[in-house]
Amino acid sequence: MKKVKADPKGVLTGVHYLDGDFAIAEGALAAGCRFFGGYPITPSTETAERFSARIPKVGGVFIQMEDELGSIAALIGAVWGGVKAMTVTSGPGFSLMQENIGLACMMETPLVIANVQRGGPSTGLPTLAGQQDIMQARWGSHGDYEVIALAPDSPQECFDLTIEAFNLAEIYRVPTFIMTDECVGHMHEKVVIPPAEEIEVVERKWYAGPKEEYLPYKLDKDGIPFMIKAGDGYRFHTTGLTHDERGYPVINAECQDWCVRHLCDKIRKNADKIIRLEEDEIDTAEVVVLSYGITSRVATRAVQKARQEGIKVGTLRLITVWPFPEKRIRELASLVGSFVVPEINYGQIVYEVERCAAGQAKVIHVPHCGGWVHNPDDIYNAIKEAVK
Amino acid sequence: MKAEDRLEERNPIEDLLRMDRIPHIWCPGCGIGTVVTSFAEALKKTQIDLDKVAVVSGIGCTGRVAGYIKLDSFHTTHGRAVPFATGLKLANPELKVIVFSGDGDLAGIGGNHLIHAARRNMDLVVICVNNFNYAMTGGQVAATTPIEANASTAPYGNFEYPFNLPFLMDAAGATYVARWTALHLRRVTMSIMDALQRPGFSFIEVITPCVTLYARRNRLGDGLNLLRYYYDNSEIQHGADTRNLDISYQGKLIVGKFVEKEKPTFLDAMNQHLSRVLGDDYQLYGRINYDRD
């Protein structure tokens, strides 16, 4: 993995007062993203607006595509043209992108999609928060594959995690999602953008060997193939079909096994390196509140209240939602009495927690169908129930 | 004697084909290979830098072209070849990007992208092989199937109005529009050469025989019979009013070069406009096709 300093052209160093959507655009520019293909959708549009205003002065392309199917397809094309690329969307647009998210996985195309989640299903609550696309991020496209998804809980983290998303996308050659929500997207807070030389950016894993020996999907020692771009004389082929090392379609079970196993293993086997969690007072906890994104900030109030009453509450915040921290949850399940899982949906991550807890710890879900954040008392009551 | 030494059996365009993927999947009598040959001829005659040519296909019989052409080539998803090519071109403006796909892929499922790429005058060459049906999946009715023609999902004959593709492309803003049949090999080659050598959105429709499905279902005979139909019924009308180019079942086929005009491409328009508005703050992008004041 080759790390370089960020290109100062894209870095707006300073202390800013930004909303999460803007911070995502700034994070992308700092990470070296020079192509944005997007389609307007509430509550994500501000990212596209910010990018469209900034990119002409940085050097790159903003194009408003005709729909989200076009946006994601253009992104994949742009990445194979040699640039870093991103788009932003919300639930309905994310649904439309799913088929080509599969193509990006299959072609091992590094790119970043931010999903500023709103309440669904369907048109749902365009202007109000939800966390209902978490499972869609994991399973939305057909077939077996793995992705990386990060969940920022503040505008600052929108900036920081967008850079990280680009870096992870390049390291593992995988679509990486920023799964934020309307609250964080529209929340204005202080965002500190450091000087370019303090921002580490992962370069694409460019192939540098003899041209005639290049195979687009030959795995390197770290299990990730080298990448090239169109126009460099390799005359290579890539396809959404099940393919071999050459990138040629091979339609049989053996090749499918090689191809799909690799797409999953490159993330599963590196899960420990990818996963980032934030834990607090977990060693002594009898109950752990597990949350992500905006809900973790709401949960803080409930946790404080419970701690004041002497209840031993730990918190675990998923900064990385996918891959899911299976190992850590299994460990904790044998150490703590219960998990309280608030999320702005009717049950998504809680099923992962239940799966990993495997009956060793009680799992209490605190659902919310979207439209606003939880009342902290609902989470507090669940904590009380957990220790009853 | 090794196969490659038998000169008389070598394919004249094998340097442009992935010979390790031959034989191809196309049926005997199919017209797609003919269009590929024309494309290869056009590449050779224009002496374009082949390292800077990329081919993008969608899904379907023609969607397989990207897999056989020995250039940078992308076999994408159904309907999305045009936006994929858009991203590729914009990311790497020195490329000449050719979208090679079928009528169902481009004008059916991908229709929205097609009209918007034409509207933007995106610098792409779109070669649309029109065989009047969805062939890969078994001869279903398409947005191009002539009225009365039989298809596997129009077993009593088609009653939907088909697209007149040159008219659609003209109306959407394409700056080069031509239509030929698989019989007009040299004309197809010349149109592709035109398109390769000009900036902007070029659309070339090539009507081709689908012997296995369209012809069989409609009892039109084999490939030769269809070429005979093209021969007897094609009429070259360069510059024809694109409104009058509807295709009726086994009816007259008006072919030719209908549109050829100049207009800034997407990237030229972007560079010109943003330079004017932002002045020196603007970072010019990609190859510049005009003089900056």
CATH topology of the largest domain in chain A: Rossmann fold
**What's the architecture of the largest domain in chain A in CATH terms?**
3-Layer(aba) Sandwich
Could you say which structural class the secondary elements and strand pairing of chain B correspond to? alpha/beta
- Rounded mean pLDDT of chain A is 98
Radius of gyration of chain A: 21 Å
Largest interface: A-B, 46 and 44 residues
- Strand percent estimate of chain A: 15-25%
**CATH homology group of the largest domain in chain A:** Thiamin diphosphate (ThDP)-binding fold, Pyr/PP domains
Number of helices of chain A: 13
Number of DSSP strand runs of chain B = 8
Distance between the termini of chain B: 64 Å
What fraction of the residues of chain B are assigned to beta strands by DSSP? 15-25%
Mean model confidence by pLDDT of chain B = 95
The shape of chain B is globular
Domain module tally of chain B: 2
Tell me the quaternary state: heterodimer
Succession of helices and strands of chain B = HEHEHEHHEHEHEHHEEH
The biggest beta sheet of chain A reads: 8 strands, mixed
- Strands ordered across the widest β-sheet of chain B: 2-1-3-4-6-5-8-7
Briefly note the structural class of the backbone of chain A.
Answer: alpha/beta
